[in-house]
Amino acid sequence: MLIGQFLSNADFSIQKADSIQQALEKLQDMLCKELVVLNGDEYIGFVNESILLDADNDAGPISSIKINTAPIQLRFNQHPYDALVMTTVYNSSLVPILDQDNKYIGVSTQLDILKAISLIQSQNESGAIIVLSIGLHDFSLSQIAHLVESDNCRILNCATKINLESDSIEVTLKVDKSNINALLNSFLRHNYIIMETHNTVAAFDDTADRYQQLMNYINI
C-alpha cells in the first residue's frame, strides 16, 4: 500500500506568483489551515494564515513573503506510516506527494492518511481487539500467533508498545473472531495479563439497537 493511492480530490495548492489575497481567500473557501506553494509543478513549501496575515501588502505575490520550506513531502511510493510520522513531527494538516521526477502530484490530508492506516490495520473488519501485557523478556510473537490460531482465529493486526518502567510490553491484537472467551482463557493460562478487550461487532450492534429503540419511541 502506497501513500500515492491516498491523494485528496481537493486542490490545496497555490502558485508562488499568485497574490497573498488569493491565498487568504482560498484558505477561507476551503476551510483549511495551510496551502502548498508551487512554481508550476515544482513544490516550494507551505504558507498558513498567520504568515499571510503578517504580510504588508495583500496584493503582493506569495513569493514576497517567507514560505515555510521545512522538508514536508513524500514520494508517491512511500508508505502511509511515513505520512503519519510527517504530520506528527511537523504538526501539518497535509503532506505534499511527489512523483518519481520530484514533481508535485497532490496532497494527502490527515483524513486521507487516517483512511489509509485504517485499511492497513483492518479496522473496517469485524472481530475483537485484545490488549495484552507480558514481561519484555517473555515476549514471543510466534507464541501469541500460535495461541490465536489454535482457537481458529486470525490476527488481522498487531501493534506493540514497550513500557520500560515496568519492563513489560503491551500487545494490541485485532482478531477476526467476536467470541473470544476461549482465547482469553488461553492467554491467561500462559501468564498474559489481559488489560482490555473490545468487541467491535457488539459495539456496532449496541449502537444500532439503541438507534432503533429511539426511532420506535419517536414513532409512538
From TrEMBL:
Keywords per UniProt: CBS domain
Pfam family, any one: CBS
TM region(s), chain numbering: none
Gene3D superfamilies in the record: CBS-domain
InterPro entries: CBS_dom, CBS_dom_sf
Coiled-coil region list: none
Source species, domain of life: Bacteria
The keyword tRNA processing is annotated on this UniProt entry: no
Residue ranges of domain CBS in the record: 67-126
UniProt-recorded name of the protein: CBS domain-containing protein
